[in-house]
Each structure stands twice: as structure tokens, then as C-alpha cells.
Design a protein that fits this description.
Largest sheet: 3 strands, antiparallel
Number of strands: 10
Distance between the termini: 29 Å
Radius of gyration: 23 Å
Number of helices: 11
Strand content: 15-25%
Strand order of the largest sheet: 1-2-5
Order of helices and strands: HHHEEHHHEEHEEEHHHEEHE
Helix content: 40-55%
Structural class: alpha+beta
Length: 295
Amino acid sequence: MVVVTVESVKELRERTGSGMMDCKRALEQCDGDMEKAIELLREKGLATAAKKAGRAAKQGIVFGSIEGTKGALVELNCETDFVAKNEGFQKLGNDLVALVLKECCPNVETLLQLPYEGYTVEAALTNLIATIGENMAIRRLAYFAAEPNELLDLYIHGGGRIAVMVRLELGDAAATANPELKVLAHDLSLQIVAAKAQFIAQDDIDAETIEKERQIYKVQAMNEGKPENIAEKMVEGRLRKFFEEVVLLNQFFIKDTDITVLKLIEKLAKEHQTTLKVKQFVRFEIGESVPDAEE
């Protein structure tokens, strides 16, 4: 039997829109012949789904749930808002979240191969594409598992257009029952939805990104006719503004713009005699460009 390469499976998947494992099996059965594998997939009844897979699936819903100490988000895409309201689409999205929570699923590739209603998730999705007549895709997912001294919060906005999940670390497990700290966790979710934070702290931004921003701001200042010494000062000011926009702790709190998120957290930690730290967050928005998103 011919050894099937990852590259050939990827190419067949791109050309047909069929599932990863279906492509692998087709290539194995056809001794690696790409054109014969395409024909085989069509013969197996995957042509309907494959034909539609060329169309962009840029609508959809982010589904989410928290159960105890576990939380999950799943972004399920489709072509039109009409299909996003379809009962079958909604059921699949909610079932996928439940499956991620049950299996502690780390990524889309793993989720696609899990058993679901007598099929794999991948096969069930293919069947739904063929039934509804519109391309769909599980774009990405997030799975959080909280420690005993951590709080999880989930906020879904706009009927699933945007969703945020936050993991907040407290000083001890007893503090997780504090209602004011639960409000803080939820306020952080609201903050991230509204202000679009990309990083928790300034130190989380890699040096290459900062240097790229620095060079852009310097060129901007020089193009404005500023001398180099003035341009350098302008760069530092614009970098501070950049950090205020993309770093959660540097942002001004949406419910009180006289205080930053960092100062708010420090204030509440002192009041409740505990420690508070944002350990993790994720923000999914339908239609946004995310190079690293799992497709």
C-alpha cells in the first residue's frame, strides 16, 4: 500500500471539501492517485458536501457552556444567518459544546473524530451539510478547566455573534463563593467583549510585535515632518496608547473609566484580603480574521 502523506490529504481536502479521514482512506484505497480519490469520494455520496465546501462559511454562532469547573466555547460556521437559526444547526452546536465538556476536548481535530449519534462528529457534520444544502465548519473551540481556587465566567453577546470565557485565579477556594468576586469575573467578560482585549498583560506581547508597532509609529511621525528626537517621544506615547487598547490590565474599566482594570483588580484584592489574577481568557467573534484559528 502506498504511504499517504499529510500534504496529499490536505490537498484532497482542499479540492473536495471532504473530511480529513475520508480523504486519507480514499487516497489509501486509490494508491495515492488524487484524481481517482476524488472520483471515489463522489461515488461515496460526498459530492454534495464537497461541492458546497468551496463557499465561504462566514456566518454562524459561538456556542458555550460552563458545567462546574469546566467551560467550553465552540464556533460553528455556516453561509447564511438563516441557517444559523435552523433547529438542526442549533442542536449540533449545543451538542458539540456538551461533547467538548464531557471529553475535555483540546482541539477541533480531536472533536471531529469523536463518536456522535452513530457517526463521528466529522461524518455527522457532512451529513448535515448535505441535508441543509449549505457549507458548515467547526472553526475553533476553547476548553477551560478551573482549579478549586479559580472562577470561570462565560458571556455570550448578540445571540452568539461574540463570546468570551474568563478564568480568574483567587487566593483560596473559599474566595470563589464571594459574590463580589463572581461579579468581577463577569465584569471582565463584559470588558473583553466590549474593549476587544488581545492580551492579559503587557509582558504577554512578544518583542517582535512591539518592535513592529514601534517602527510603524516612528515612520508615521517622520512622515509628519517631526525631527527624530520628537518622533521618538511620539512613538513612546503611541505605544502607551496601543497597550491601553490591546492589553486587558491596561484598559480603562468600562463601568468606571477613571480606573484601569489592573487598579480595579488590585482594589478588590485588598478589600477582600485575597489575591486575584486573570489566568486565561478567550474571545471569539463570528467573521473575524484569525490566522491561527482551527478550521
